[in-house]
Structures are given as structure tokens and as C-alpha cells.
Amino acid sequence: MPKPKYRKSSYSDQAAECVEIATNIPMTVAIRDSKHPTGPSLRLRSATWTTFQAALREGVL
């Protein structure tokens, strides 16, 4: 499996803590805490990530 290439949200600043995501792995979204870049990551199917984002936009979560 390829190594995730993480990126921060365009809404975060360089000094703030942030969640980072990687979308370079087919059908997978990797998520990690920017404060602990060598720590564990969460990997979701792309469809699960899309559903999660939609729920946030709709105020369900």
C-alpha cells in the first residue's frame, strides 16, 4: 500500500492544531492528528468519509 500524503485544511493556520487527511490511496481516506504526525492514523473508505462530511454540512453531527 502506498504511503499517505497528508495535507492540512486550507482553513487552518500554520501554528494551529489540525486534523490532516490523505486522499492519494485509492478508495481510502487516511486521517491523523497534526500534533502527532508519527502517531496512529484512522483509515476510512472514501464513501464513509463522504457520508461523514455530508452529515457535518447538514448539522446531523
Task: Based on the model shown, name its key terms.
61 residues; four-stranded antiparallel sheet; 4 strands
Task: Provide the fold topology.
Blueprint: E1 7-8, E2 19-22, E3 28-33, E4 42-45, H1 46-58
Antiparallel strand pairs: 1-2, 2-3, 3-4
Order of helices and strands: EEEEH
Rounded to the nearest angstrom, the distance between the terminal CA atoms is 31 Å
| Physical arrangement of strands within the biggest beta sheet | 1-2-3-4
| Number of strand elements | 4
Overall residue-averaged pLDDT value: 89
Radius of gyration based on Cα positions: 12 Å
Give me the secondary-structure category: alpha+beta
What does it look like?
The protein has 61 residues and is α+β, with helices and mostly antiparallel strands. 21% of the residues lie in helices and 26% in strands. The chain has one helix at residues 46-58, and strands spanning 7-8, 19-22, 28-33, 42-45. A four-stranded antiparallel sheet has the order 1-2-3-4. The termini are far apart. The relative contact order is 0.18.
Summarize the model shown.
This protein is of the alpha+beta class and 61 residues long. The protein has one helix spanning 46-58; strands at residues 7-8, 19-22, 28-33, 42-45.
